[in-house]
User: What shape does this take?
Amino acid sequence: MPTLIAYASAHGSTAGIARSLGRRLTHRGLDVEVRDCAEIPAGTRPSTLVIGSAVHESEWLPTAARFVDHLAAGAEELPVWAFSVGMVGDEGSALARPVTALLRRMLRTREPTAVQQLRARTHLRGHHRFSGRFCATDAADTGRAGRMVFRAMGGHYGDYREWSAVEAWADDIAVEIDRQTHS
Assistant: This one.
C-alpha cells in the first residue's frame, strides 16, 4: 500500500498542509494517498503513515484521535510521522512574540494525547507543529470569549502556514522512507 497521509481538518488549514505534503512526497517519487481520517476504512494498513490534525484546546480533533485509537494490532513497527496544526507552530505563529515564546516552551513538554498514543503504539519518527490559518470567519466557532482571548494574546487573523517548512519536512520524510526501503 502507498504512504498514507491522513488528516483531520476543521476549516481546511490542515487539509491544505496534508495535500502539500502529498504533492511534495509524490514529487520525490513516492506513491502517496491523501485522505481525511473520517473516510479511511477500518483496518487500513499503509506501509508508512503521515498523520496530522488541527489542534483545538490542546488536543487533536476527534476523527484523528479515533483513527489513532483504531490502529490495528501489530502497528508497533509502522513508521509514522505526525503533525499538529494550531495557532503556534515550530516556525510561524498567529500570536504576539512574547506569547508565542511562552507557548513554545510549554509545547516542548506537552503533546496532544493522540500523539502520545502514537509514540506508545507505533514507530513514531517525528512530530512537527505547523501554524495554520486563522480567519475571522473561523473565529465564529470560538465564541466571543475565544475571540477576546485571541486578541488579548496579540493574535492577528491570517494564514501563518510556512510552506517552505512543510516542504522541508516532507523532504526529510522522503529521505527517511528511501533509507528504510533501501536498507
